[in-house]
Design goal:
Layout lengths: L4 E16 L3 E8 L3 E7 L19 E7 L3 E9 L8 H17 L7 H13 L4 H15 L21 E5 L3 E4 L7 E4 H9 L5 H19 L5 H12 L6 H11 L1
Helix pairs in contact: 1-3, 1-6, 1-7, 2-3, 3-5, 4-5, 6-7
Amino acid sequence: MSELRKITLAPAWILHHYPYRDSSLLLEVFTREHGRLGLVARGARSARSRWRGQLQGFTPLLLSWSIRSDLGTLTDIEMQGNTRPAVGRQLLSACYLNELIMRLVTRHDPHPELFDAYAQSLEMLAVNMEAALRLFEKSLLQELGYGLLLDREADTGLPVSADALYEYRLEQGPVRCDNNNSGLVLHGSSLLALSSEVLDDQLACREIKHLMRAALSLYLGVRPLRTREVMRELTALGIKNDMTAKLNNRIRESG
């Protein structure tokens, strides 16, 4: 039997929670020093729970827990700030970040730099949503060991030219376009914008979005992301950003 470990007040975010047994919750949390892990919050759904109303997503927390094997038990919680004012598409985008972490980051594998990037992305969503998503995706791929080659040509090693067109070959990098290119084509300026993490151009954001979607698909497998499905459904229904209640309910239903 493995040794019981006790962790005290570690920085963490709640990614998701599920009903567990009669009155408890099973939490998926992302911590800075201990990675992603599952914690049982015993009695958290009861009317007398001391944690009632505190186990919220997108809120910086300090968590304490004890753990012996894969699943731990929550023992204490301190809130480090108010719940972030995520609404509408901003909320769905934040849920998308959570889903990426849950799908691609293995449990008990610390990624402190990705933890910091997640916090920065949540702050940035209210300012530049597209840039926040693309920069987090870039950080995620780098942390998982799948970083993209952005500033050098894959075949020649020469610097990427802002004025040139490139075909991006996944798991290799950008190659200058010729007459036979039919793959993922984008401007050198877009690659350099992502490399320097300055995504303030609409063309660059649009091209980098296609690049990131293709790159992530290599590791996500065939099962689609639920947040993408929800977004497509909402777009088809013409739901707008101010219809927050309907959007929030749909996200909860998506699990």
